Amino acid sequence: MITLSIVPSARRALALGLALSLAGCGESADPGGLNIVVITMDTTRADHLGAYGSPLKLTPHVDALAERGVLFTQAYAPMPQTLPAHATLFTGLTPRDHGALENTYTLNDGYTTLAEICAERGYATGAFIGSLAVDDLTGIDQGFEHFDQPGGDWGEGRQGHPPQRKAKAVTSAALSWIEQSGNDRPFMLWAHYYDPHGDANKSFEPPERHLKAISRDEVRAQVVAREGRFRDVAGVEALTDYWWAYAAEIRFTDEQVGRLLAGLEDQGLLENTIVVVVGDHGEGLYEHGQKAHGTHLWEEMMRVPLVLAAPDGAGAGSRLDAPVTLSDLLPTIERMAFGADHGLPRVGEGLDLWSPAVAGGTLPDRPIFLERPHFEEKRLLNRARGQASNEFTYGYLTAIVQGRQKLIRQPDGSSQLYDLDADPGELTDISAEQPERAARLAERLDGWMSAHKVSEPGTTEVSDERWEQLKALGYVGDDDVKPEG
After folding, report:
1. Is 393:399 a contact under the CB 8 Å cutoff?
2. Tens digits of residue pLDDT in 403-440
3. Cα dihedral: 376, 377, 379, 382 (round 10)
4. Which helix (H) or strand (E) holds 241?
5. Cα 275 to chain center, whole Å?
6. Is the dihedral of CA 241, 247, 251, 256 positive or negative?
7. Residue 201's pLDDT is what?
């Protein structure tokens, strides 16, 4: 497999040098710090959580966490795909900087992850994965002494149904690890819930009891209220059933998030634990004629839930409305867990969100940059099959969000400007009405892309084994052509 050439992190070198220095003096480093629990809800849109205004009552446990923590109303994934987003979360770097630009890429071990930082401080580190979309072959396992991922026999050629597991199994594995680890040192735990992610062929498969617990009529009302956002797709009843199943997956996931937090509380651990709940990307439910995610940069695919909760209740009930991104989480978690004087060098462009959150301050008026994964051309076109729109143009699809203005630039260089306050559904391009604003945003986008150069999309070689895994997970189709470097 060919991976990008990466210079090892200065952060890692500094941490290892400190550890060796202490060891040479006959001392041991005091790990210190709070426990860290990172919960990622795969494929979860912000607008389906009660804390974000959904009337469907799908997420009572995450909503309760938001009441005792801080909720970020405008949190963005950097890319609408699982590996790039998680790699950004754990390194503090944009996909253009860490190089995991698509699910077929890998995170090179030259970068330092949150788990490695914690391990170097003496933490126990454990990850509990819902799907092999982020398995140990992706490089996301760096720093985890215990990495628990789905097993199972895929059969000859690793074809067929993908190895993944339900949220209940993820929670059970995580709680078992906590019980067996003891409380002699702090821990960092990552729980990855994959259930809201529809399979390639079977779509959503929620437990029947969760489907029955949700009023279909209320889901239908949500669909009808958004009718102007749907294009060239099946009628209201078919859309309602699709939305209903997705909502039930989120309800099931929330139940298991609640079970995990209750298990930690039963063991007396929450009183010394920070909790982060975040989506890795959203999901298209046929607004703009698009289903699933990965190919476009609409709000439904990019805006994710983000809740931070500290054990002392600092910032309880706060809401921050400034745009933030997953690259902000590494410096924020460091600040929350290790304190303001943790001494770790700053990495990437992410900001510490915790200080303004608890102090009631504001974040700087900075742009947030978004990008589509770097699909090979035939792979991108294959993803368009069965969908209403032919807007699957190969190349760099990018966007910039500043305040409530969003500019999306197409691969051919054309762009559209949206006012997210007046037009949250991104239905009306106002670039012709506000050419100066569009030009300013375009200039900032140009500057960012120039400062973070990468190769052309689809130019990284993928191993045969990894390709078969991705095919089974539904990320690539039978007719996709494996990129050849």
Report:
1. no
2. 999 999 999 999 999 999 999 999 999 999 999 999 99
3. 170
4. helix 236-266
5. 15
6. positive
7. 55
Query: So where are the chain's domains?
Result: 32-364, 369-456
CA dist., res. 80 & res. 89, Å (int): 13
Residue with tokens 């059969």: 155
Task: For residue 9, give the DSSP letter.
Answer: P
- In terms of phi and psi (left: phi > 0; alpha: psi -120 to 50; beta: otherwise), the region of 244 is alpha
Residues 359, 468: Cα–Cα separation, whole Å? 49
With beta carbons less than 8 A apart as the criterion, state whether 480 and 470 touch: no
Query: Can you name the CATH fold of 369-456?
Result: Arylsulfatase, C-terminal domain (3.30.1120)
Predicted structure pTM score: 0.88
Q: Render pLDDT for 228-287 as a digit per residue (tens, 0 to 9).
A: 888 766 789 888 988 899 999 999 999 999 999 999 999 999 999 999 999 999 998 888
In contact, 274 and 333? CB cutoff 8 Å = yes
Closest among 311, 297, 304 to 279, alpha carbons compared: 304
484 pLDDT band (50/70/90 cuts)?
low
Greatest mean pLDDT among 347-356, 364-373, 386-395: 364-373
CA distances from 42 to 8, 83, 130, 339, 422 (A): 29, 11, 9, 29, 29
Query: What confidence tier does 202 reach under pLDDT thresholds 50, 70, 90?
Result: low
The torsion angles phi and psi of 88, rounded to 5 degrees, stand at -65, -45
Report CA-CA distances (Å) from 24 to 21, 122, 195, 423.
5, 17, 47, 61
For 32-364, the fitting CATH number among 3.40.640.10, 3.40.50.970, 3.40.50.720, 3.40.720.10 is 3.40.720.10
Angle at 145 between CA 144 and CA 147, to 5 degrees: 65
Write out pLDDT tens, residues 284-306.
888 877 888 888 999 999 999 99
Q: How far apart are the first and last CA of the chain?
A: 9
3-state secondary structure of 293: coil
